[in-house]
């Protein structure tokens, strides 16, 4: 295993120390393992927190700041945070107006957040939980743990964060978060596996001419293996999955993200985005806003996820609202 | 089972997990996210610390504390599931020394807690597939007149068989379910750690 | 070779099409292969252009925008642009106040930019060329082509860009660009090789327990090979090289970048930054500004470069000035 | 050398480069950035296009256009260097048909252009290490009474030997110089493409 680390056991602690040193706008509690805004907000507003396993950076710590999250609680690599930690983040985010938990739909995340929400409730903090489950590679059926939460998390955090910032109440923030999730679909493809520090070995072996189609963001194999194809074909597969799950029509305006899973050069992400925008242009669907880069990663996995959100006017306005975080920043 | 035996059990689990960390992680690597070994090791080493400096009177105190420690140190799916199980087991062992019958009903409470939280049923390729036959074998042995040690030994064997039997199952709960048919052919990591937990119980009860 | 592409011959064209679709604030001329600002500036100011081989994204196209570059001219992967292209960028950037060429010091880049500068001069455009040569892994001697230009390019483009934006004249912009370069030092380490689309094979074979120390940003092997070590030791090697070339004292304030070469997870970049900031804290040197992320990449190479700039008050003020580009954005 | 021969030369170079693209790239991969093959192929295929639809009267016109096309299509170090070389060679071949002596001085002009632009001297592990002995052998053969074809054949051999000799050199110019002593043991890609260029000249002059 080749990584920049001191010991597999201290990866998270060491990385949090670096995060703290890198961003004076963040406050990092190294004991409780929570990341909060260093300044403000200085008025009552609905708190917004998220968390999950580490290894998906900049998600979630890189989205803490004005206009987005109030706090993040990173677990060990690919391991959801524990209830204590989530509770600490909830307390830190609470300004009397309640707290929204943005939870990616994984068994572990859901259970730990649920326990934390109960503990927070015991302390008198009103909590609303919003599940993100946008990955169309997984069927939402009794045969699965339901769809995974992946790229749409960024859209949910940005848009709900902006709504909280403009003074919406607890149910209002939870409601728009759910609406954004419901309007978003993602699909991912991997060219290589990734290696967790704890395991030391790649999650799967992939021949030089095959790719994993329908992967998540935890280094697991995908739904199926296919022969390596050109970018145009790969994008066609992904967009088919996305658009057949949520058909769009020409009147629709979209927010589109082409997201690198960690080991894909930006050059290739732009190339993929070109193909995605060609597919949408072909159907007359408007790409109103875009993100191209590494936002929800899976360590050093070479791969790409595509997320399409059918956005209404309110969502677009909230998307455009100022945001000031390490990973997303505009308008201020 | 008294407090000392409960402690010994937790210590034996910690030792077993330590020895099998890599195996659990590699099983999880095949159909999950390659963290089950590290998760369990982190959890049970935290339990050793939590138990080390505290005089606890009843097996229930020991196991409730074990459960709470697992919840606050493991994370992932395993943390809440095993944490809730041990808390439930502990809550059912209030007195200073529990008999075999009481241990059975405590273990049953643990299984109920896992199923309530995780909503898994046998055949879903989870902890439940090792835990369920373990409790059944435990009960059967008591029914046939065996004591705690014999019951625990049968439970361990049944848990191991249950874990092995997950290999041919298609996962319907947890991360492995995302793989659909590709989850078939791999033994479930959680069922495997459950078998280690029952094997540890068998070990300490014969001493 | 596993990449998201349609054909090795169309990588750049396809990626530029994607870049154009992704960023309405950029204008991409797909024929001339130049990237300019879509809006403004609407007043005379010194133009700032840069270019070089592709494969280093977001450098340079991601730094085109208000407060930074006026135009970028990307060559083929790892191949400097041709004079025609550089001339086109120069013309596009010229608003009568002259144009500064920011050139990373590589034989090919230097020669092509020099030819373009001559052609621009023939057209009456005043050009100043600023060479960036910050990589302390290479000795600047008659035995080499001189130091390579790497991470400091970001600092030069940001700070000179801000100075141009505030109305400095041609020599003033060139002067501060040279000062930033002179105050900056970089060093890079690679864990893996990268594969260019044209070659299809990794640039070098590296055993599982070895790293390349002192690499550039073109996938070439480094100065030497070493055994894989912990992050702390690797950072110590890099910081030694940097600080022994340009000793700093406690009064100094620095801008520090920990830059991923393309395939390194952000989690590890933060971890590395933690070690860098510990080294500097130990010596009492102030880290005044930071950048942690993928800014000057080498395709999908797993590796990290560290750049330290001794910044004076003017540089810090210009660093903080508003910038609005795809890859760096603040203050607007 | 007339315009047709000059054209034939450029076409023969293009064919040789096409055949050796991968070799040039792999040589560049060892001590550079793995683009020399692609660079040269892009350049000479652009030259074929540029020459295809234009009636050019003199060998000089053909080669000046070749040089200009290389400059505007290759990039990297090779573009300006070879581009300047061919422009200089072309400028020295003004008439409709140049004799062997004139070709010699044209080739010499090309070498001068490369050295002026790149400031490399023999031994630096560059184009110059193949080009210099090629010109010397060309001259030597004329001096010994040989004609254009014989001179070109000797030049090609000398260029090939020169390219091979770069293997033991430590680079002092271009990207390979960053490697320091590690550049030793690999043949220089630019010297190798120079040998292809002289071999192509030898081929077309015997026809
Ligand atoms: N709903 C569930 N009920 C029971 N056990 C489950 C459930 N979901 C997952 N598991 C068990 O958890 C194990 C994985 O634990 P672990 O790897 O620690 O957590 P995570 O899946 O969050 O990474 C699986 O092998 C499975 O046995
Ligand atoms: N200063 C120089 N003088 C002569 N030839 C040079 C010089 N620098 C580099 N070269 C030649 O250029 C070749 C590399 O060309 P190429 O790979 O196309 O460009 P780049 O190095 O920019 O990637 C080297 O192998 C060497 O022969
Ligand atoms: Mg996990
Ligand atoms: Mg797991
Ligand atoms: Mg090159
Ligand atoms: Mg090269």
From TrEMBL, chains A, C:
One GO MF term: phosphoenolpyruvate-glycerone phosphotransferase activity
Biological or metabolic pathway of the protein: Polyol metabolism; glycerol degradation
Annotated ranges, domain DhaK: 7-330
InterPro entries found in the cross-reference section: DhaK_1, DhaK_dom, Dihydroxyacetone_Kinase
Superkingdom of the organism of origin: Bacteria
Subunit record text: Homodimer. The dihydroxyacetone kinase complex is composed of a homodimer of DhaM, a homodimer of DhaK and the subunit DhaL.
Name assigned to this protein: phosphoenolpyruvate--glycerone phosphotransferase
UniProtKB/TrEMBL annotation, chains B, D:
GO biological process, one term: glycerol catabolic process
Keyword Zinc: no
PANTHER family: TRIOKINASE/FMN CYCLASE, TRIOKINASE_FMN CYCLASE
Protein name: Dihydroxyacetone kinase-like protein
One term of GO molecular function: glycerone kinase activity
InterPro entries: DhaK_L_YcgS, DhaL_dom, DhaL_dom_sf, Dihydroxyacetone_Kinase
SUPFAM superfamilies, sorted: DhaL-like (SSF101473)
GO cellular component entries: cytosol
Gene3D superfamilies: 1.25.40.340
Species for this entry: Kutzneria buriramensis
UniProt key word Kinase: yes
UniProt keyword list: Kinase, Transferase
Limits of the DhaL domain: 4-203
């Amino acid at each position: 295993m080749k990584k920049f680390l001191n010991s597999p056991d201290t990866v998270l602690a060491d990385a949090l120390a670096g995060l703290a040193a890198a961003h004076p706008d963040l406050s990092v509690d190294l004991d409780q393992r929570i990341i909060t805004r260093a300044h403000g907000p200085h008025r009552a507003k609905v708190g917004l927190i998220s968390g999950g396993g580490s290894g998906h950076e900049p998600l979630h710590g890189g989205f803490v700041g004005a206009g987005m999250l109030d706090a993040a609680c990173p677990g060990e690599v690919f391991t959801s945070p524990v209830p204590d930690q989530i509770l600490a983040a909830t307390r830190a985010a609470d300004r009397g107006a309640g707290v929204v938990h943005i939870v990616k739909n994984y068994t572990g995340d859901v259970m730990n957040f649920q326990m934390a929400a109960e503990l927070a409730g015991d302390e008198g903090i009103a909590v609303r939980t919003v599940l993100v489950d946008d990955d169309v590679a997984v069927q939402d059926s009794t045969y699965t743990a339901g769809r995974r939460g992946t790229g749409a998390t960024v859209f949910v955090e940005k848009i709900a964060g902006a709504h909280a910032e403009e003074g919406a109440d607890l149910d209002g923030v939870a409601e728009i978060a759910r609406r954004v999730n419901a309007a978003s679909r993602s699909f991912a493809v991997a060219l290589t596996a990734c290696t967790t520090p704890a395991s030391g070995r790649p999650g799967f072996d992939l021949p030089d001419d095959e790719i994993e189609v329908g992967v998540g963001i935890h280094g697991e194999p995908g739904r199926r293996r296919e022969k390596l194809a050109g970018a145009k074909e790969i994008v066609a597969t992904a967009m088919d999955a996305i658009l057949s799950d949520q058909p769009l029509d020409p009147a629709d305006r979209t927010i589109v993200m082409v997201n690198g899973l960690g080991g894909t050069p930006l050059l290739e992400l732009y190339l993929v985005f070109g193909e995605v925008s060609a597919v949408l242009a072909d159907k007359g669907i408007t790409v109103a806003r875009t993100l191209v880069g590494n936002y929800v990663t899976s360590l050093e996995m070479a791969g790409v996820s595509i997320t399409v959100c059918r956005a209404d006017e309110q969502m677009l306005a909230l998307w455009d609202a100022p945001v000031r975080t390490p990973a997303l920043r505009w308008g201020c | 089972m008294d407090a000392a035996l409960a402690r010994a059990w937790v210590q034996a689990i910690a030792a077993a997990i330590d020895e099998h960390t890599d195996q659990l992680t590699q099983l999880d690597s095949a159909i999950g996210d390659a963290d089950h070994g590290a998760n369990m090791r982190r959890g049970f080493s935290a339990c050793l610390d939590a138990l080390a400096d505290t005089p606890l009177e009843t097996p229930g105190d020991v196991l409730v504390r074990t459960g709470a420690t697992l919840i606050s140190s493991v994370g992932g799916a395993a943390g809440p599931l095993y944490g809730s199980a041990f808390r439930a087991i502990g809550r059912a062992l209030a007195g200073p020394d529990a008999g075999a019958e009481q241990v059975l009903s405590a273990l049953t409470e643990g299984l109920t807690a896992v199923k309530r939280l995780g909503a898994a049923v046998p055949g879903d390729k989870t902890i439940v597939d090792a835990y369920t036959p373990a409790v059944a074998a435990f009960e059967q042995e008591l029914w046939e007149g065996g004591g705690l040690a014999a019951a625990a030994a049968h439970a361990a064997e049944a848990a191991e068989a249950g874990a092995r039997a997950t290999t041919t199952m298609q996962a319907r709960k947890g991360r492995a379910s995302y793989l659909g048919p590709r989850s078939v052919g791999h033994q479930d990591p959680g069922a495997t750690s459950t078998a280690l937990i029952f094997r540890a119980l068998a070990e300490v009860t014969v001493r």
